[in-house]
Design brief:
The protein is an alpha+beta fold. It contains four helices and six strands, in the order αββαβαβαββ.
């Protein structure tokens, strides 16, 4: 929920789960899920800036902002024990295919750069830079010491 609404100490995990489920049921959230048979291995959340108005490093993000994108890719999850096996890469590919199906447009992501350091997977919820670069994203501008705005245009399907 952290990209949908500003989270605060007054929100509980149960509230977040309930509100996310409500958004899913109402079609107000998007995600590309990665499955192996019946098991969900992970996902990639995407949506419009209206759907996902919250971004990390907001002050630096807004300082360099010229135009809002049509789409944001904001959050990844890979199940425990599955990191480093291409789940995030597959989820990102699925999100881009769905964005194309929905009309395409400019897409932004906010990945973490890990090339020069070891980072716990729990810090990579905005995605690893390598996955975005594998899918043709270009680094646009840094918004923290290790986080970038990356962009790509997706043609309609």
């Amino acid at each position: 929920m952290g990209f949908h609404v500003k989270l605060g100490k007054d929100r509980t995990a149960a509230q977040n789960r309930d509100e996310k489920e409500q958004r899913v049921r109402e079609g107000r959230t998007h995600a590309a899920l990665v499955f192996a048979d019946d098991e969900c291995l992970g996902w990639c959340q995407f949506g419009s800036p209206e759907e996902l108005p919250e971004v990390k490093s907001r002050r630096l993000y807004e300082k360099g902002l010229t135009t809002l994108p049509q789409w944001r890719i904001t959050c990844f999850f890979t199940g425990k024990g599955l990191r480093g096996r291409g789940v995030a890469d597959a989820a990102l590919g699925g999100a881009l295919a769905e964005i194309a199906r929905l009309g395409g447009g400019t897409v932004e992501g906010y990945p973490e750069e890990t090339d020069d350091r070891t980072v716990s997977g729990s810090f990579l919820h905005t995605g690893p830079m390598a996955a975005f670069e594998n899918h043709g994203f270009t680094r646009t501008r840094p918004i923290s010491p290790h986080r970038w705005v990356v962009t790509r245009t997706v043609a309609p399907a």
